[in-house]
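Entry type: protein chain
Record version: 2
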Amino acid sequence: MDTMPVLITAGEPAGIGPELAVAAAEGRADLVVVADPQLLADVARRQQKDIHIETWQPGRGDGTADPRTVRCLPVTLAATSFPGRLNPDNAGYVLETLELAAEVVMRGDAAALVTAPVHKGVINDAGHAFSGHTEFLAALAGVERVVMMLVADRLRVALATTHLPLRDVPDAITREELRRTLTIMQRALVDRFDLANPRIAVLGLNPHAGEGGHLGREEIEIIEPVIAELRDRGMQLEGPLPADTAFVPRHLERCDAVLAMYHDQGLPVLKYAGFGHAVNVTLGLPFIRTSVDHGTALDLAGTGKADSGSMAAAIELARKLADNRGR
C-alpha cells in the first residue's frame, strides 16, 4: 500500500544540504527533495553518479523508485550556485523551498518535513528577517508558540527560549510562556513520541538553580510556581534542577525529556553526546518537522566528505513520528 512521502528541503544551495539530500533520497520512493532539479543533477554529476532527477507531483503515492532516481519537488534557483560560495541572490529560493514544503505537508500530501541546514547570515544579508527554521515554520503555520527539541537516542532536550541574545533570556521566561512550553512538550511526548505519562526535568535559569534566591530569583518567582501548578494538573515534573548536575545519569534515568532555559544551556551536552546522529524536532506545529543537528559546513561542500548520519537519523525519526501519529 502506498504511503505519503517525507519531504526533504535541501537548504542552503552552497552548503552540504543538497548532497546530503541526494544521498538520502537516491532510489527511495518514500522521499522527495524540495530543490532546484539542476542543483541536484549537478551534485550527482560531481559525485560521478548516474542519477535521474524525477519530478514529483503532490498527491501521488510512493509507487516504485528506480535505484538511480531521486524524486524532486522543483523550485528554481535565482542564480547558479557553487559549493562553498554563498550568494544572497539565492536567499529567496531557500525560503521558497520551505514555504512550498510546509504548504504540501499541511495540505496532507506528505507525511513529514525534514530540513537540511540553511545559512541565517546570508538570508538576513539579503534583506529577509530570519532567525531560524523554528520561528519561520511557526509563522507559516500560523502557530503562536512552538518548542525546539533535540533528540539523541533517549536523550531529549527542549528549549524554553531559542535564538535570543543571552541578555534577553531572563525577560523572555515568564510564567505564561513557561506554562505553554511545558504543555506543548507534554502533548508532543504523548502524541508524537508515544509516551503515556512523560517525565520532564526542568532546569533552573541561574547557577545552582538560584541557590535559594542568592543567585537569582527566577526559580522562586517563575519556575517553581509553574512546576507546582502543572503538577497539580497531573504532569510529572522534576525541578528546577541545577544545569551543571542535571545531566548526570541518576537524573536522566528518571526522565523522558529535559527542558533547558536557553539555547547554550542544554544543547552543548546533547550535541556532545549525540553529534552526528542527533535530530532537531519542532514541537507544536500542525505537522511533523525534523532537521539535522549541524550547519551548512561550507568548507565541506562539494568534497563528498560530509557526514550523513544526522540526516539519516532525522529521516528515520520523522517517519517514526508520522507512524505514531497515524495510530
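Comment: The longest strand covers residues 69-74.
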